[in-house]
Amino acid sequence: MKKLLCLLTVLLVISSMSICQSRYDIIITEVLADPSPSIGLPEAEFVELKNISGHPVNLKNWYITDGNSKGIIREDCIIESDSFLIICSAAYVRQFETFGRVRSVSGFPSLDNSGDQIRLISLQGRTIHAVEYQSKWIDDPVKSQGGWSYEMIDTNKPCTLSGNWQVSNSFNGGTPGRENSIAGTTLDEIPPRVVHSYAADSLHIAVVFNKPLDSIAAINAASYSISNGIDKPISAEAIAPFFNLVLLKLKTPVIRNNVYLLNHSGIADCYGNKAASVYGIRTGWPDRNPDNVVINEILFNPRGDGADYIELFNRGKSIINASDLYVSNSANAGSSTQIYKCAESSLIIFPGDYFTITEDTAWVSKNYRVKNAQALHKINKLPSLPDDNGEVLILTGNGKTLDAFQ
After folding, report:
1. Most buried one in 49, 181, 220, 226, CB count within 10 A?
2. In what order do the strands lie in the sheet with 245-249?
3. Predicted TM-score of the model (pTM)
4. What are phi and psi of 2, to 5 degrees?
5. Do residues 58 and 13 lie in contact, with contact meaning Cβ atoms separated by under 8 Å?
């Protein structure tokens, strides 16, 4: 009987290694990115995984990455169904063992305190789950000092990007290796919508949605069409890690600076919420050399602890990519610490459009009448805007000044 049990165990290991895992079979359920000062946990970063696949999975040669470095699980590591696993660097394994099952990875990535993107990649190279945590999830000034983990609320809703996460309520600052302190149920019945669209090149149009999509619905090329003779794309691909971006491959190329209208139908999110058919979403291929952008409004002295903002206006005829623009101030125009991109990823400013950047969109929306929320965008950092006097510049990537205001 013992030999039979041993044989079955071996077969289980081999079987679990051979299964090609699907999205959300193994999910990231807790992250400690700012472990200092310690509240009760080891003063070290960790990521907690949970197996919700319904069967054991071997994580050998899987890895955790933040895009800059990756931590690889080098040896056999069976994670049973409905169980947790703590992932950390080798130096802290013994300290975390008191909380639950632990596995070290070689090259555990160094996590930023906010805005880092953690991806779990399978042996086959597939993105199984990804999380981009934000410090704004912490609304307690004490907890914002560090030592508290981010926890998932409802592990049955793993594809929700932000509304399913909060800071831990545990007296230890986190719950590695066991059910989260904020565990509960969440409801998501909101259909997906397009946030924006742009042409990556003459033959590819990117469509960005506000939430992860159902892969089968998203990759149906017949669900999309583009105006001005482009018609339906050849193919559609949902892009990892969050699968909220669809890349359309075209048969007929788009022309730079032409505005096209995108239509879609039959799109559903990862929970099956179906979007209504949508027509007339603007898209286009931006100009190589952005020009004719002016500074239209500045808030440099907000009341209380509010946030500055800078509003731009595209008064030309060209389509402009905000990621090609930089904002700076004259006193430090030669210093990289005072020059910041207006957008980290592609965002289109069409002719006649306004584009406002701020470090706190929530505060601006709460304190001012924002007629078009789509034109308000968060930027990680604005240059210093002194209250008494100063200057703001809008620059291109090659240092050309498009506009300046004192």
Report:
1. 49
2. 194-201, 204-209, 245-249, 235-239
3. 0.87
4. -65, -40
5. yes
